[in-house]
Amino acid sequence: MGSESTKPVSLKQKAAREMEEYLVVALFLFALLGALTTYRRLLMSEVGLSYLHYGYAAIEALVLAKIILIGEVLHFGERYQDKPLIVIALYKSLAFGVLVFAFHVLEHVIHALVKGESAVAALARLAAQPAEIGSYALLVFVAFVPFFSLQEAGRLLGEERFLNVLVKRPQAGSSASP
């Protein structure tokens, strides 16, 4: 959601802007992963198991946010920028969902290697859980649709106008058009 400006942007301003973007994406991902962790905890408590991986969800959110921002810098998922907003949002959700899924697989492989296991063993464990993998991929995709819809709406409207539309109540008698 960049804004057009004629003034040169200092390195400090650019770093602050990038940190703000990073935190927004990380907070969104932590809300998603935290909700999934809570759901998993509740399901597992029904069979007497404990599951409290909120720290893991926070770290994963921070890492995934960085991956998403790097993907955006590399123009990942920008193939259909001239299409309607819903097409852009669906395509970016799919593209970044695949990117996040690839990281998820890599994460399991690295975890196995750290524990002294082989990468093949980690991949075999993942492949043995197709329902869990499929549901994770579906949840990430579905969660990304509103995220990228809002992000693209901000890009199309301009940051200031988008934030006004998003957080300010319209005055009585004012029109919704520009």
Helical coverage, percent range:
over 70%
**Radius of gyration over alpha carbons?**
19 Å
Number of helices: 6
SSE series: HHHHHH
Q: How is the main sheet built?
A: none
Number of spatially distinct domains: 2
- Number of distinct beta strands: 0
The unreliable regions are none
Tell me, briefly, the overall form: globular
Give the overall average pLDDT: 86
Quote the beta fraction: under 5%
Tell me the span between the first and last alpha carbons. Answer: 18 Å
Secondary structure category: mainly alpha
Structure overview:
The mean pLDDT is 86. Helix 1 packs across helix 2 (54-73). This protein is mainly α and 178 residues long. It has helices at 11-45, 54-73, 85-114, 119-127, 130-157, 159-167. Helices cover 74% and strands 0% of the residues. The chain contains six helices and no strands.
Quick synopsis:
By secondary structure, this protein is mostly helical.
Outline the secondary-structure elements.
Layout: H1 11-45, H2 54-73, H3 85-114, H4 119-127, H5 130-157, H6 159-167
